[in-house]
Amino acid sequence: MEGPLTHAARTRAEHAFVATLGDTTRVAQDRAAGSRPERLSKRLLVDISHAVEKAVMAGRVEPPTVVVALFQRLAHFDRERAVYERMAQAGVTVVVGFVTGEDHEPPRGVDVVELTPDEPMADEWTVVALGPQAGAFLVATDQHAYDPADRAVELSRVFDGRWGFSRTQAASELARLRFALGSRLDPAVARTVDDLLARTMPSGGQQASSAGTPGETWATTSLYHMIDRMRDAHAGTRELRDQLADAHAAAGTRATVPTDPASGLPTAEFLQRWTPRGGPGALQVGLALFDVPAFDEPALQDPRAAYHAGHRVAAALSEPLGPVDVAVRLDERTFVVVVPGASSRHLAELADRITEGLVLASEGYPGVPLEARIATTTTRARPFPIGDLHAALAHADDADGPVDAGPTPSGGRIVVALAAAGPDDAGPDGDGPDGDGRHVRAVPEPAADAGWFSLHDDGEATGPLPRRVAQETLGRLTASSDIDVFDER
After folding, report:
1. pLDDT tens-digit map of 224-236
2. β strands within 59-92, DSSP E
3. What is the CATH number of the domain that holds 123?
4. Other Cβ atoms closer than 10 A to 90
5. What pLDDT is attached to residue 151?
6. How many Å is the maximal CA-CA distance in the chain?
7. Are 95 and 66 contacting, i.e. CB atoms less than 8 angstroms apart?
8. For the chain, first and last CA: distance in Å?
9. CA-CA distance, 308 to 330, in Å (whole number)?
10. Of 201, 232, 255, which residue is a domain's last?
11. pLDDT tens digits, 58-78
């Protein structure tokens, strides 16, 4: 049987898919018509250029077939020299252009035009192919910028461009280049281009769709889809590699930092060594800050009592954690759980389990309730926004349950809550330990019509542990923030 969260996730995905159908069709038409420039990396431009070149040579060349390519620099053309010489030998009319100022050996059978450094075409990466039955185009402009996420300097150059396999749009691009190059073209080549354009461009009342025929639109759309998927896969692989490096650094740091003798947990030095730099990291990290006021009570000033309480809290924090998660003691009463790769939903569930562990840890010696105030967030910020979590805990003092404490300077959201034992969890009179030293017992489930969480006038909490209320709070936040209550870890 489908549960409420599963049902909500499924219906939300279905509605989002239906809502994007109209946009998907419009984007496909714009791409096929070459009317939607997109940000392209040099890495992708190389692959698309090779695809156009291979398409030209895929079968018998039917004259007149023209290919015009602008390479910016001679060094870029030298790597493709043999390809364009083979095109010329096969009967293709080939024109290549690059910026003047470099000595070069003209390729056999290829018409070479030189571009001045200050003309717009000097910034173009262009491959236009047009024949009697087919056409293809790639037109991109150098943005003189780099993709900071790509480690390869040259291949990380970024361009704004468009491409496709519409013969009509390829003819339009060839006409633009013919006009721009003008008398720099060899007269015989210019006549061939003019003749081909006269046979290709629509005239009079003929249909003039730059998106091309349905077959050309299908081909362009399917290729865009495959390339989009490959780009997503490449970006995901790169991000995963960075995330693994980040997690590996955390594991290495954990093995070298000192531990707090009163709890056995790593000290705050762990965070300082792992995240010394500023700026975002590759790995999203969940942070749950636990403030345990009991450590300020006189009963825990005794070293033996503080030792037992510290290790009880450490056990409650560590028991539900995974192999790469870590609990850290920041100071006498404050702990933080660090969960690499956590979603908001997973972090809330983990905080609930820890809260249940603190309830059990409060039983027995040293006889103090180990309740906690909690602040949670997920972040890519480095260093971690521990100060923001501390500041947000001020909201927990007067909270009627988990509340949204607002965004951090890095854009994340913080949820704060007070996890306390109910009035029946103290001694028989509700205000102290019982004869067996039991201070906190499990809070019973509320009635079906009970509220999620409440505070009595005397400040004592009633109701369930905040597992479900945290989920409800996060669900409300998704309407106005980037927290996704349905995402998986």
Report:
1. 777 777 766 666 6
2. 66-72
3. 3.30.870.10
4. 14
5. 66
6. 107
7. yes
8. 23
9. 18
10. 201
11. 888 999 999 999 988 877 788
Domain annotation covers residue 366: yes
Comparing C-alpha atoms, which of 371, 314, 376 is closest to residue 347? 376
**Is a pLDDT exceeding 60 seen at residue 240?**
yes
Fill in the amino acid letter for 482. D
Higher pLDDT, 33 or 21: 33
Strand partners, 32: none
**Cα 287–chain centre separation:** 19
Q: What is the pLDDT confidence band of residue 17, given thresholds at 50, 70 and 90?
A: low
Q: Which amino acid is at 453?
A: F
Residues 191 and 328 in one domain: no
The answer on 298 and 156 residing in a single domain is: no
CA distance 62 to 51: 19
User: Do 249 and 191 share a domain, yes or no?
Assistant: no
The CATH number of residue 260's host domain is 3.30.70.270
CA 222, 224, 225, 227 dihedral sign is positive
Rounded to 10 deg, the angle between the 303-318 and 344-361 helix axes is 140
The domain of 399 spans: 245-477
227: in domain = no
Q: Is 183 exposed, middle or buried (0-12, 13-18, 19+ CB in 10 A)?
A: exposed
pLDDT in tens, 114-147: 899 899 999 999 999 999 999 999 999 999 988 7
How many structural domains does the chain have? 2
> Taking residues 353-378, what's their average pLDDT?
88
| Angstrom distance (rounded) from CA 356 to CA 162 | 56
Residues 277 and 175 grouped into a single domain: no
Residue 113 and residue 259 in one domain: no
Asked if the structure places residue 489 within a domain, the reply is: no
User: Measuring CA to CA, which residue among 303, 300, 361 is closest to residue 327?
Assistant: 361
Task: Answer whether 293's CB lies under 8 Å from 392's CB.
Answer: no
By the 8 A CB rule, do 212 and 32 touch? yes
Does a structural domain hold residue 357? Answer: yes
Nearest alpha carbon to residue 405 among 99, 209, 396, 330: 396
pLDDT at residue 299, rounded to an integer: 87
**Are residue 380 and residue 289 in the same domain, yes or no?**
yes
Position 453 scores a pLDDT of 33
Residue range 44-53: mean pLDDT, rounded: 90
370: tokens are 């180990």
